[in-house]
Amino acid sequence: MKAKHLSFKGDCHPGGFLPSDGMESWLSEFWSHLHTAEGLRQTIQAGGIGLMCLIIFAETGLLAGFFLPGDSLLVTAGVLTIANGDRPAYFDPWMVTGALTVAAIVGDQTGYWLGRKYGHAMETKPDSWWFKRKHLAAARDYFAEKGPLAIVLARFVPLLRTFVPFAAGMGDMPAGRFLRWNILGGILWINSLVWLGHWLGGTPLADQMHKVILIVIVVSFIPVVWTAAKRLLTSRPGTRT
Question: Where are the alpha helices (H) located in the chain, listed in sequence order?
């Protein structure tokens, strides 16, 4: 039987690299798989702690990793650290939290370094499938508004946790100061959600992970919606009476 290979060819374009139809299809399938309860569970069980570390690192450290699951992966990983009925515990919770905390901290440090080195060049880069200037602008505004606390708060907000470390590097935040807030944010983010999942894993909700993940996603996007709404209202003062 012949092996089936996916195409990862792309086309050169003045604005950057354009993925081929095959790559777009693969990315779409991969995204869908990672953002369903069963697909995420299968991915974690198959890839183990190593793959989880890679996903967390990529989501927090590489701009192209913004689409990867963060909160939902952590909660699901926590669920799989405790036995419930016929389901065994696949991982030790302390090993999961320890390894993923390191991955999250290293990821943010990578994003900070990339922002410090290449950030201002990215301001003139055209939008592409993996980079949107509006995401970077939102992260810079958030960082300007919250200051160093943004390093911690952004951990719990999709998109922002990818772009805020990059924005901090662009803003020349002192490396030592960033590292302290980075460590605090990484510890709080990883441990709060993994241990939440660990607790849920011992309850009947463990068999309804699709509902749990949906709630996690909705809650995590509330700050994004709130920030966008507040910016919209304050940018048009003439419309308010």
Answer: 21-34, 37-61, 71-79, 93-122, 133-146, 149-153, 160-170, 175-201, 209-235
Cross-strand pairs, 16:
13
What is the per-residue pLDDT across 125-139, written as a single tens digit (0 to 9) for each?
887 766 778 888 888
- Please write the tens of the pLDDT for every residue from 137-196: 888 888 888 889 999 999 998 889 999 999 999 988 999 999 999 999 999 999 999 999
Instruction: Give the separation between CA 35 and CA 67, rounded to whole angstroms.
Output: 10
Cα-Cα-Cα-Cα dihedral of 165, 166, 172, 177, to 10°?
10
Mean pLDDT of 207-236: 74
Per-residue DSSP letter, 13: E
pTM of the model: 0.79
**Amino acid, single-letter form, for residue 69:** P
- What is 161-217 written as a DSSP string? HHHHHHHHHHTT--HHHHHHHHHHHHHHHHHHHHHHHHHHHTSGGGGGHHHHHHHHH
Which residues make Cβ contacts (< 8 Å) with residue 152, sequence separation at least 6?
181, 184, 185, 188
Distance CA 52, CA 42 (A): 12
